[in-house]
Amino acid sequence: MFRTSLRTISLAVTLTVLSLVSPAIAQQSSAPHPTAPSAQTPALSAPATTVQAPSSPSGASGPSSTEAAPSPAGDAGANLLEQASPHDLSPWSMFMSADIVVKLVMIGLAFASLVTWTICIAKMVELSLARRKLGAALTEVSESRSLAEAQMALGAKDGVLASLLASAMHEARLSAGISSDAGIKERAASNFAEIVRAESRRIRLGMGLLATIGATSPFVGLFGTVWGIMNSFIGISKSQTTNLAVVAPGIAEALLATALGLVAAIPAVIIYNHFARVTKGYVELVSRASGSAGRLLSRDLDRTHVGSIGGARSRAAE
Fold it and tell me: What sequence ranges are listed for the domain MotA/TolQ/ExbB proton channel (predicted)?
C-alpha cells in the first residue's frame, strides 16, 4: 500500500509540474525540457512527500485546473490572430494561391499578351522595311520609259514592283501578234489585281489574331473572375464566416484574372487599329506601283503600234 500511495503521489506531482511547465515550453522551444529532472525529484524526496500526502492531491488538482484552463483560449486567440493577419496580396502570391482554372485563364491571358507584343514588334519592322523598299523602287522606275528600262533600273531586287513588272512583260510576250491593246491591258490589269490582293493578304498576316485577342480577352478574364468568386463563396459557406480578412484574398485573386484580360485586350485593340491604318497606306502604295507598271505596259504597246504603222507606211511608199 505504501508503494502504491508513493507511486500515486509521485504521478500527481509529475502531472502538476508538467501542467505548469508546458505553456513555457510552447512559448520558448529552445528552453531545456524539465520533464526528466521532475520525474526523479519525487523519488529522492519520498519521505517528505509522504507527510504531505493528504494535501498533495488537492494542491495538484488546484494548479492544474487553474493553469490548464487558459490553454484552449490561447489556441483560439492564436487562430483568430492568424485569420486576421494580412495576406500577401502581391500578384505572384495571388496567382500561386488561385484555383487551377483561374491559373489556366491567367496563363492563357499572359500568353495572349506576349503574342500581341510579338506581333506588334514583328509587324512594325516588316511594314517599315516594306514601305521603305517599295518607295525606293518607285523612285528608281519613275524615270523609266519602258518595262525593260524599269527592270534594268531595279536590277535583281525582289519586291512587289518587280513582280508587277515581270507580270506585265510576261503578258506582253504571250499577247504578241494580237492587235487588240484593250484585251492585253485588261489581262494585265487582272494579273496586277491578283498580285495586289496577295500582297495585301501577306502584309495583314497576324492582324486577325490581334483582333481576336482584343475582342475575347476581356470575356476570358471575366470567366476566370466568375469562377474564382464562385469558389470564394463556396469557401465562405464552408468556413461559416464573413470576415473580410478571410473573404478578400479569394475575391482579389479572382479580380486579377479580369485585370489580366484587360491588360491583354487594350494593347491588342490599340495595336490593331494602328496597323490597320499603316497597312491601308501600304496597300495604297502597292496600288501606285500597279498603276506605274500598267502605264509602262501601255507605253510599250503604243510604241509597238507606232513602229508597225511607220513600217507599213514606208513599205507603201516604196
Answer: 164-284
Residue type present at position 197: R
The gap from C-alpha 55 to its chain's centroid, in whole angstroms, comes to 74
Q: Read off the pLDDT of residues 253-307 as tens digits, 9 standing for 90 and up.
A: 888 889 999 999 999 999 999 999 999 999 999 999 999 999 998 888 888 766 5
Domain count, the chain: 2
Which of 11, 44, 72 corresponds to the end of one domain? 72
Q: Is the dihedral of CA 284, 286, 292, 296 positive or negative?
A: negative
pTM of the full structure: 0.64
Q: What is the DSSP letter of 86?
A: P
Condensed to tens digits (0 to 9), the pLDDT of residues 118-130 reads 999 999 999 999 9
CA gap 92, 71 in Å, rounded: 37
Residue 157 shares a structural domain with residue 199: yes
What contacts 35, CB < 8 A, 6 or more positions away? Answer: 17, 18, 21
